[in-house]
Design goal:
Elements (H helix, E strand, L loop, with lengths): L5 E3 L4 E3 L5 H9 L5 H19 L2 E4 L1 H16 L11 E5 L26 H8 L3 E6 L11 E2 L3 E2 L15 H8 L6 E5 L5 H7 L2 E4 L23 E6 L2 H11 L26 E4 L10 H16 L3 E3 L8 H15 L6 H13 L7 H9 L3 H21 L5 E5 L18 E4 L2 E4 L4 H8 L5 E8 L5 E7 L5 H14 L11
Parallel strand pairs: 4-5, 11-12, 11-13
Antiparallel strand pairs: 1-2, 3-5, 6-7, 8-10, 9-10, 9-16, 13-17, 14-15, 16-17
Helix pairs in contact: 2-3, 5-6, 7-14, 9-11, 9-12, 9-13, 10-11
Length: 496
């Protein structure tokens, strides 16, 4: 067996716990290390580093060891091995896993132990993962911080005084600190993309509908939510494609009628891409530190003979796109209101000034939106969706920020729409950043967040790589090329 400290990687020598999931599975497959040894290595790291992070909030080491031994027996017998065979995995707390609680950070659900796995969990198990624990979320998965009364607060590995993002914040923190081999999150408001950006890892928000979400919802809910998706998170772009192949495809009830065949990218070099770059927008001013790193990336692409435009855009009014997104977002999450809260929001909405376009006003109106008004918003969404399709006939990708700033300090006071962050030395509403979630997210588009560098104060920044509907693998291919030729995952200091 190999030593547990270092394994030779394709780009550099990385510690075992920072290797890609594909590399880890390869080591197990070639019998360089056993699934049990690999699991124990990660469990030791959780014991050592998780107390300062609180990223992994539930684990069952003995059940995981039993699973790892079974995987090793299967390998010894020459059984066909899955693409993630032996890879130790944690998963976002909102995924149902038999024997593990699913609370979504809600105290009333602290004893909710689901009777069956989420469909994606079954698919990941079939691919060979060793699932040993769950990672933290905000209550109702509704914040860009990850804290709740059930499990407490998760810290960012790069600076424990700052948020790791949300709602997949525990997932991103665990990956960045090398506490697991791969992860899976969910995204309706950048809940995969934002934590990947804040923690310096990779995340894929897939095209809407290609990964079934059964078992990643409130107890008893089967209908998929509008905009909401689930997808993989990793320390390497190649793992996103591998995990998407495992996770994607129709649910059983749909599989008799359709199959998923994502278009394979034709580009093999960076210079094969046509890329538009968007650094800022009046709806969500972007901190200059973030803009500088994305500009630096764009300059690099230009030197690689990539066709780059700083002006190409879909023919969409970004202010209207933001309004439509916020309304659809808040309508999509309105079902969790109690009857009493719904009636209260109806009263508040009736009293709002018709000219009030604040986030609170939009949120409140959307919480009590009539179906007729929702249909009008949906029509606007689909007109913009067609505008995006026209844009992608001329351009392969759009590069833009994942959020307005790097990770911000913990702030749990009041409601999210009452809080502020600092952007270019100005206090701006935290909810402004939702623009970068919805500009592509409301229109079914896939996007990958990939590391783009560090700010002068040492915080990671990601680039959001947006592609056409069902162009998930093109986004991933571009991220793979950036990883190879420009910037890959960088471990945070202090987690050797």
């Amino acid at each position: 067996m190999i030593a547990l400290s270092k394994v030779s990687g394709s780009r550099m020598s990385l510690p075992l716990h920072y290797q890609s999931a594909k590399s880890l599975a390869g080591l197990v497959r070639r019998k360089k290390i056993s699934a049990l040894e690999l699991l124990d290595h990660f469990l030791d790291r959780v014991e050592r580093y998780n107390p300062r992070l609180n990223a992994v909030i539930w684990q069952n080491a003995e059940a995981a060891r039993k699973r790892a031994r079974a995987l090793d027996r299967a390998a010894a017998k020459g059984a066909k091995l899955g693409p993630l065979h032996g890879v130790p995995m944690t998963i976002k707390e909102s995924y149902d896993v038999v024997g593990m609680p699913t609370t979504r950070g809600i105290p009333a659900l602290k004893d909710n132990y689901p009777p069956r796995n989420a469909l994606t969990v079954d698919r990941l198990n079939a691919a060979g993962v060793t699932l040993f624990g769950k990672t933290n979320v905000p209550i109702h998965l509704a914040d860009w911080q990850s804290y709740n009364e059930v499990y407490g607060t998760t810290n960012n590995p790069w600076d424990v005084t700052r948020s790791p993002g949300g709602s997949s914040g525990g997932s991103a923190a665990a990956l960045a600190a090398g506490l697991c081999g791969i992860e899976a999150g969910s995204d309706i408001g950048a809940s995969i993309r934002n934590p990947a950006h804040y923690c310096g890892v990779y995340g894929l928000k897939p095209t809407y509908g290609i990964v079934p979400i059964r078992g990643q919802a409130m107890p008893g809910v089967l209908a998929p939510g509008d905009i909401s998706v689930i997808g993989p998170m990793a320390r390497s772009a190649e793992d996103l494609a591998l995990a998407l192949d495992v996770m994607a495809g129709p649910d059983e009830i749909d599989s008799v009628g359709w199959q998923l065949r994502l278009k394979r990218p034709t580009q093999t070099r960076l210079r094969d891409f046509r890329v538009a770059v968007m650094l800022d927008d009046p709806n969500a001013e972007v901190d200059q530190e973030v803009q500088t790193l994305l500009s630096r990336l764009a300059d690099f692409l230009g030197r690689q003979k990539v066709k780059v435009s700083f002006t190409a855009r879909p023919e969409i009014d970004t202010t209207e796109a933001h309004r439509v997104y916020v309304m659809l977002l808040r309508a999509a999450t309105s079902g969790r209101q109690t009857d009493e809260l719904f009636q209260r929001n109806q009263e508040i909405a009736r009293k709002l000034d018709p000219s009030d376009e604040s986030y609170f006003a939009r949120m409140t109106r959307a919480n009590v939106l009539s179906h007729r008004d929702w249909l009008a918003l949906n029509e606007k969404r689909h007109k913009m969706r067609h505008a995006w399709a026209a844009f992608f006939r001329e351009w392969d990708l759009l590069l833009c920020p994942a959020a307005a700033s790097a990770a911000f300090p913990h702030d749990h006071q009041g409601e999210r729409h009452e809080r502020f962050i600092t952007v270019n030395n100005k206090r701006v509403p935290t909810t402004d950043q939702l623009f970068w979630a919805g500009y592509s997210g409301a229109f079914y588009l896939p996007s990958v967040v990939a590391p783009a560098g560090l700010t002068p104060t040492g915080l990671p920044v990601g680039v959001q790589i947006v592609g056409p509907q069902f162009g998930d693998l093109t986004c991933v291919r571009f991220a793979e090329l950036l990883e190879r030729e420009y910037q890959g995952f960088t471990p945070p200091p202090g987690y050797d």
